[in-house]
UniProtKB/TrEMBL annotation:
Species, as recorded: Culter alburnus (Topmouth culter)
Homology family: Belongs to the DHHC palmitoyltransferase family.
Notes concerning its domains: The DHHC domain is required for palmitoyltransferase activity.
UniProtKB keywords: Acyltransferase, Membrane, Transferase, Transmembrane, Transmembrane helix
Record carries keyword S-adenosyl-L-methionine: no
Protein's recorded name: Palmitoyltransferase
Length: 356
């Protein structure tokens, strides 16, 4: 046990150190004292985060770390809200179709058109619900945390674990994701190797369903809109409360489905282009920078995961034979994607290409 003399000497050393930093009265000006205190504080602050590898990017990351944390946590919380919003809006459209649209179809359309709307509409709804459920509940895929013989390309700076090819870190999930495309708040889940097909299929069938409702209900929307506008006439037409609700519901259905068809259709088209090229959203930006870098060196960049347009789609949907286009694409299917997401077979290129 340390004696009181040791504590006294410790206090005296600290006092003398502070006394040296604060010069005696009359020997220095006040500006010199402030400068010494500022330099001393700067040294103390730098000693807390000093690193030989520190650069401007690291400093900016440290400064914006609270903002990143706030955005990540808000996105994680809003993901639940967005999923609930998708369920509520989709359910409202389905309810309006059953209560307002189908009775009009049954009373005015011929039999063959009634069968078409019943078959196509329910098939589209089934595919939409199935793929959305699978996209939100399927794990995107994580690299192994323990030591293994799987080839890796780098070390994740956040997880401090080896990262296989096409693996990237998601700051919202706080994990590395196999073949990460992006974090989707509408799914409250990352889009990765094992649920990428479900995500794209959901976007595709949602776009098809919204376009189908918008086109099919166009005449109903025009009639409902004219009826609502006529209510401002003098005297107004004698519509019952139920008829007015039907008119407003048809306008709501057409506006919502048309807007979603345009917005989500653009996103679906963009992802279709990426699938055709054998890329993800993250790899699109990486490959573009790499393409510019190699072009300055007189070389040509080739995406090492591009197997041809048709083969890229076959690999994406897991199609191995012709019948799979029906059983695995046009019907609900829970089959696993091509590969395990850890290793990738790359096609051989000629000598004038470079694969990264």
């Amino acid at each position: 046990m340390r004696s009181w003399r040791w504590y006294l000497s410790k206090v005296m050393r600290l006092f003398l150190r502070w006394f040296r930093l604060c010069p005696r009265r009359g020997r220095r000006k006040r500006s010199g004292r402030v400068r010494d205190l500022w330099n001393y504080g700067t040294v103390l602050l730098k000693s807390l985060y000093y690193n030989v590898l520190t650069n401007s990017d690291t400093v900016l990351d440290c400064v914006f770390e609270p903002i990143y944390w706030l955005v990540d946590n808000m996105t994680r919380w809003f993901g639940v809200v967005f999923v609930s919003l998708v369920i509520v809006l989709t359910s409202s459209i389905v309810i309006i179709i059953y209560l307002c649209v189908l009775p009009i179809i049954f009373s005015t359309y011929p039999v063959h058109w009634i069968l078409w709307h019943l078959c196509y509409g329910h098939w589209n709804l089934l595919m939409l619900v199935f793929h959305y459920y699978k996209a939100t509940t399927t794990c995107p895929g994580f690299p192994p945390q323990e030591k293994s013989d799987i080839p890796t390309v780098t070390i994740c700076k956040k997880c401090i674990v080896p990262k296989p090819a096409r693996t990237h870190h998601c700051s919202i999930c706080n994990r590395c994701i196999l073949k990460m495309d992006h974090h989707c708040p509408w799914l409250n889940n990352c889009v990765g190797h094992f649920n990428h097909r479900y995500f794209f299929s959901f976007c595709l069938y949602m776009t098809m369903g919204c376009a189908y409702c918008s086109i099919s209900a166009k005449d109903m929307f025009l009639d409902a809109y004219d009826a609502i506008e006529s209510s401002y006439q003098t005297p107004p037409p004698a519509f019952s409360h139920q008829e007015r609700m039907v008119h407003k519901s048809l306008v709501y259905l057409w506006v919502l489905t048309s807007s979603v068809a345009v917005a989500l259709g653009s996103l679906t088209l963009w992802h279709a282009v990426l699938i055709t090229r054998g890329e993800t959203s993250v790899e699109r930006h990486i490959n573009r920078r790499e393409r510019k870098r190699l072009k300055l060196r007189g070389k040509i960049f080739r995406n090492p995961y591009h197997h041809g347009k048709i083969n890229n789609w076959r690999r994406f949907f897991g199609v191995e034979k012709r019948s799979d286009w029906l059983t695995r694409v046009l019907l609900p299917s829970c089959h696993l994607p091509h590969g395990d997401g850890l290793t990738w077979d790359c096609p051989a290129y000629r000598n004038n290409t470079v694969a990264i």
